[in-house]
Design a protein that fits this description.
two-stranded antiparallel ribbon; globular; alpha+beta; two-stranded antiparallel sheet; about 90 residues
Length: about 90
């Protein structure tokens, strides 16, 4: 079995399928990030992302590159969400 490339960030879907973040479309990235900031609650009200420098940014206004970087920063190498809530 080939060793996976740990430098390519992946997201593990609820069915266990892993998807490279670089191949996800903009709408999917937004939905996954909104799910993350709302702790998986389908009717969550949070719509902003807090960047590493402390600035709050509306997820709806983020460009694709920013969305990819934000999602990559909160997933583990196995594709699961990190448990820390500091960036939520």
């Amino acid at each position: 079995m080939a060793k996976s490339n740990s430098s390519t960030p992946v997201y593990a879907r609820s069915n266990g399928q892993k998807v490279a973040i670089a191949t996800m479309n903009e709408n999917h990235l937004r939905n996954v990030l909104l799910n993350y900031v709302n702790n998986g609650k389908p009717n969550g009200r949070k719509t902003t992302w807090t960047s590493s420098d402390g600035k709050r940014v509306s997820i709806a206004s983020m460009n694709v590159g920013y969305l990819r970087n934000a999602l990559a920063s909160v997933v583990t190498p196995s594709g699961k969400f990190r448990t820390s809530t500091t960036s939520r």
